[in-house]
Amino acid sequence: MLDTLITSKTRVRLLVKFFMNVANEGYLRGLAEEFNESTNAIRKELNHLTEAGYLEKEAIQNKITYKANSRHPLFDILQKMVRQHLGLDAIVEMILDRMGDVQKVMVIGDYAKGKDSGIIEVVIVGAALNTDYIDQLAGKIEQEIGRKVVFYVKGKFEGAGMTVYAKVSM
To answer: Entry's InterPro entries (predicted)?
Structure first.
């Protein structure tokens, strides 16, 4: 969706980087290396996004760092668009629909850092989770969002007080 609205792939990647997680920051050379792009292409897009007010820049020592401008009137809308572009809203909705007693759903790994690597890692925390349901979601989620998903289910043994993780790949 986002890449049909915005034709610059570099701009889409920058929006994903900064609006996936408001804590994400970057600087010109680091972003160029991360995206395997020229510094000129990254500089051009950073300038456009900064001039539009979507990004803030700050000089720290000899580097200018960029981050999302959370005070911009369109911040929430852009963040929602990025999450929909990545398919995260669909994952959360499907999980919560019939998962059981879900306490937390957290995105970790590359996507938490704003890198669109194609593999989304999700931690689900809850006491009585329906892990059979997660197994059945594999095909549905991959078709819906076009990305691979790895779930880490965190629960507790009854009475033992131990925390155990189970990895479910989709």
So the answer is: WH_DNA-bd_sf (IPR036390)
Residue 59: other Cβ atoms inside 10 A: 8
Cα–Cα distance between 22 and 14 in angstroms, integer? 12
DSSP 116-170: --SEEEEEEEEEEE-HHHHHHHHHHHHHHHSSEEEEEEEEE-TTT--EEEEEEE-
**Cβ atoms 10, 35 nearer than 8 A:** yes
- DSSP line for 37-55: --HHHHHHHHHHHHHTTSE
Single out the residue of 154, 147, 149 nearest to residue 129, CA to CA.
154
Structure tokens of 65? Answer: 């760092």
Cα angle vertex 137, ends 134, 139, to 5°?
140
Residues for the chain: how many in total? 170
Q: For 105-141, what is each residue's pLDDT tens digit?
A: 788 888 888 787 888 888 888 877 777 777 777 567 7
Q: Which of 52, 55, 51 is nearest to 66 (CA)?
A: 55
